[in-house]
Structures are given as structure tokens and as C-alpha cells.
Design goal:
The chain is α+β, with helices and mostly antiparallel strands. The chain is built from three helices and two strands. The longest helix is centred in the C-terminal third of the chain and has 14 residues. The N and C termini lie close together (9 Å).
Length: 64
């Protein structure tokens, strides 16, 4: 929950990362050695990320 709260720096702003299947599966390596690009997104009122917000809400509900 702490990580999720840090992704919400202010009202109507949420920063998130979403994996890219093509990038993630292009190289098979151990996590500590793998350094693929991990796209980040900033969700705002004008650029909503409803799918990411819904997944985050489900995660918070699951741990409460």
C-alpha cells in the first residue's frame, strides 16, 4: 500500500508502470540482471488511465 500511495503525489495525479509484453519477453534473464525499459505513465484528469486506476483500486481492496 505504501508504494501505491507514493504513486499518487497529488490530487488527480497517479504515476504508474505497465509492462510491455514484447519488451518483457524479448530477453530471458534473471530479474536482477534484466534492465528492459519499463514505460511509465502519468494519469491526470485530461489523460485518464482508467484501467490502471481500476487495477490499483482492486489491489488496495484486496489488502484492506
Amino acid at each position: 500500500a505504501d508504494y501505491i500511495m507514493q504513486c499518487h503525489p497529488s490530487a488527480n495525479i497517479f504515476d504508474g508502470q505497465v509492462g510491455d509484453g514484447d519488451l518483457d519477453h524479448a530477453v530471458m534473464c534473471r530479474p536482477e540482471e534484466c534492465t528492459p525499459l519499463r514505460p511509465t505513465y502519468t494519469c491526470t484528469a485530461t489523460a485518464p488511465c482508467s484501467d490502471l486506476a481500476a487495477e490499483t483500486a482492486a489491489a488496495l481492496a484486496a489488502i484492506s
